[in-house]
Amino acid sequence: MNAVTRHMTWQIIVVAVVASAILCTAVVLQQSVRFIDLIVNRGLPASDLVYLSFLITPRFLAIVLPIAVFGATLFTYHRMQVGNELVVLRSAGLNSLGLSAPGLVAGGICCVVSFVFSLYLMPLSAQSLRTYLNDARSEIGSVLIKEGEFNAIHDDLTVYARQRAENGDLIGLIIHSQQENGDDITVIAERGAVIDSPGGARILLADGNQQTLSNGELHNVEFEEYVFDLVENKPEEGTYWVKPKERFLNDLLFPSDSAGDVAYRGKLLAEGHNRLAQPLLAMAYVVVALAFLLKTEFSRRSNAKPMFLAIGSVVAMLVTNLGLVSAASKNLSLIPLLYACALAPLIVGLIVLAKPKGIRRGTAPDFA
After folding, report:
1. Where are the domains of the chain?
2. DSSP letter string over 278-296?
């Protein structure tokens, strides 16, 4: 790799990293809003918001990074074209394929990084996020009971505490719960304290009574001490159906015989093949940008035309890919088109770049 190639490659990478950071930060901040409730109303540490944002980053970065590299390639080559730097390099003996080397290197690096995100980091972060949120609902710190308010712990459980003592005990408690069997349970206690247990957060109640309305009959039981679960029951091990975004490639391409996998087999296969095809789009985007910029006659009066053509082509490729993923989940015969959407522009673009640029006789150079 000569000095010119290294310099241009470095410029493309720097611009792509900055653009990716800006775009990904904007998307992650927008998505992080749904975690605010866990911080404000569930008592989780504010520092956990950073960790949760970090876990949702790989999925968005896998989409943003190829677009950022395309934009960086377009920006770098267009700037050099306007400044006549590409003309100087052509005069030094570089053809279109030689000039495209920096963009191809940057695109290749992006392609490899996208494969790492798509095949490993995306499912790993999705699994970690799901595990963290499930555990957060079972930890003592995830339940914050505000005094003087009716606190909806979850859909079927509401807790009211008149006040909170200095030692953290809750005074004047009313708990209402709707059971899965249709029974309504109301517990009234003079005081209580939230405690932790292997099964999740619980509240230890003292001096109260429990009223149960079952089949139209009211049953009342007084107690001196009583333990009440504050968290929903966790699904039993093996009953949770792993979503496509949480699966690694092998689990997507070779679904099991479980009821969930059989019902969503098309969706799993489409997601698996898209994990392999989508990173190739990074290279295809770059090749499309290079083909339009390096193989189109340059004129200062219309130098924006190749950029708009390249942007339009990439938008069309992106929309086509998204549409094919959805369609392939319902019609598996469309799966080969996922690869064709990335490979066809890539191959055609490389052929165009490798083709010698013809010299038009009798045409005066455009210096305007």
Report:
1. 3-137+242-354, 147-229
2. HHHHHHHHHHHHHHHHHSS
